[in-house]
Design brief:
This protein is of the alpha+beta class. The chain has eleven helices and ten strands. The chain has helices at about 20-35, 40-45, 50-60, 75-90, 90-110, 115-125, 240-275, 290-315, 325-350, 360-365, 375-390; strands at about 130-135, 150-155, 155-170, 175-180, 190-195, 205-210, 220-230, 235, 280, 285. The strands form three sheets. The protein has a four-stranded mixed β-sheet with strand order 1-4-5-8. It has a four-stranded antiparallel β-sheet with strand order 2-3-7-6, covered by helices on one side. It has a two-stranded antiparallel sheet with strand order 9-10. α4 (about 75-90) runs antiparallel to α5 (about 90-110), α5 runs antiparallel to α7 and α7 packs antiparallel against α10. The chain is globular. The mean pLDDT is about 95. It binds flavin-adenine dinucleotide (FAD). Flavin-adenine dinucleotide (FAD) binds near residues 133, 136 and 168.
């Protein structure tokens, strides 16, 4: 059979279906017209605008792969990746809000919640409720399963005590997927996932962090003092929270890869535009080979990143193994984002170093890619283990 036979030749990774192209174009327009004008002020204020958040819901960006019967868009994981990438090109803070909602929270509910829980929560998540994913604590970051938040059986409820740290979206969220241990003697096999409403008794949002980058995305502490959570709000099985945490994070990493790919593309966009209009020595700087070579290298790395991210996402949607590819794409994308934003600053020269141009912010935003949803070292641990275990 010929290699060009349409029945056997898989599509090129960056070839989008008609539906995906239209979706991408809609998100791109929204990012450029509605988000871009506010990026600097939101970064300075450290607050995400409520009107833009509302528009994210109206556009369906907060419930991309929630089935239509629950009020969502009926899309799939790769579409979330496209949306995160497009939004991050303009504002990585906005992208992570959408990322956590879709790839971590909604994803966990779709996979592990029972039908009653889905009917209760998915319509809210599609319509107007922001959500958070609360695993990390002060004493347990990379060693996530050493978490010390405890849940004790209290009849119709569980009573939770502890603190969570670094929780994205917490200032805006109405719902929290929170991991606590019901049986510390069992170690990680006591970890259980709870769905917590913001107004639950004993639940409070604590300090909001003042950060280097992604400043418009809120990151807060959560305080649980005898917090009462109905037993009906346990997600999945008791003691199986570790599985929910691992599996959602494996997928979430592709979302962070997409955020970093979009960020890198955004930095390249600014460098290209500036190089074509900035004149020195009587020519645009884009006419100098030294600048062209920089731009070319940036473009190569952005393309390689996008291929890795799309491949991991397409593997996930196809039901094929993707854990190594997800770790690789996040690891590589966060490096490329940092490098591309840094080089973009240099292409812009002095103005690149100021807040009047967006590349300074993209550089600050890039740093988080190496930290959350597993640091670069933790990705290297995953990648090395998978390769060493290969027969
Ligand atoms: C802005 C922001 C948003 C976040 N959002 C969320 C969220 O929504 N939900 C949530 O649950 N968490 C969230 N986090 C937490 C994030 O996932 C953790 O910060 C991250 O996992 C690292 O944990 P740590 O900060 O405790 O660092 P540590 O685990 O203390 O790591 C410190 C350093 O030691 C290295 N290290 C640790 N262990 C090893 C090892 N075994 N081998 C080699 N090196 C190692 C790390 O790579 C790192 O360089 C967020 C964090 C930030 C900063």
């Amino acid at each position: 059979m010929l290699a060009t036979d349409a029945r056997v030749t898989p599509s090129p990774l960056t070839q989008l279906s008609e539906e995906e192209r239209m979706f991408q174009a809609t998100v791109r327009k929204f990012a450029r017209e509605r988000i871009a004008p506010h990026v600097r002020s939101m970064d300075e204020a450290g607050v995400f605008r409520k009107d833009i958040l509302r528009e994210c819901f109206e556009l369906g960006l907060m419930g991309i792969d929630i089935p239509e019967e629950y009020g969502g868009q009926g899309g799939y994981f790769f579409q979330s990746i496209l949306a995160i990438e497009e939004i991050a090109r303009v504002d990585p803070s906005a992208a992570v809000i959408i990322d956590v909602q879709n790839t971590l929270f909604n994803n966990a509910i779709l996979r592990w919640a029972n039908e009653e829980q889905k009917r209760k929560y998915l319509p809210r998540l599609s319509k107007d409720t922001v959500a958070s994913y609360a695993l990390s604590e002060a004493g347990s970051g990379s060693d996530a399963f050493a978490l010390s938040t405890r849940a004790v059986d209290a009849g119709a409820h569980y009573k939770l005590n502890g603190r969570k740290l670094w929780i994205t979206n917490a200032a805006e969220s109405g719902l929290f997927l929170l991991f606590a241990n019901v049986n510390p003697e069992a170690g990680y096999k006591g970890i259980t996932a709870f769905l917590i409403e913001r107004d639950s008794p004993g639940f409070q949002i604590g300090k909001k962090e003042d950060k280097l980058g992604i400043r418009a995305s809120s990151t807060c502490e959560l305080i649980l003092d005898d917090c009462l959570v109905p037993k009906a709000n346990v997600i999945g099985e008791i003691g199986k929270g570790y599985k929910i945490a691992i599996e959602t994070l494996n997928e979430g990493r592709i979302g962070i890869g997409a955020q970093m790919a979009g960020l890198a593309q955004g930095a390249l966009d600014h460098a290209l535009a500036y190089a074509k209009q900035r004149k020195q020595f009587g020519k645009t700087i884009a006419e100098f080979q030294g600048v062209q070579f920089d731009l070319a290298e940036m473009a190569v790395e952005v393309e390689a990143t996008r291929l890795m991210v799309y491949n991991a996402a397409r593997l996930r949607d196809a039901g094929l193994p993707f854990i190594t590819e997800a770790a690789m794409c996040k690891y590589f994308a966060s490096q490329v984002a940092e490098r591309t934003a840094s080089r973009a600053i240099e292409v812009l020269g002095g103005v690149g170093f100021t807040k009047d141009y967006p590349v300074e912010k993209l550089f600050r935003d890039s740093k988080i890619g190496r930290i959350y949803e597993g640091t670069s070292n933790m990705q290297r641990v995953t990648i090395a283990k998978q390769w060493l275990d290969r027969k």
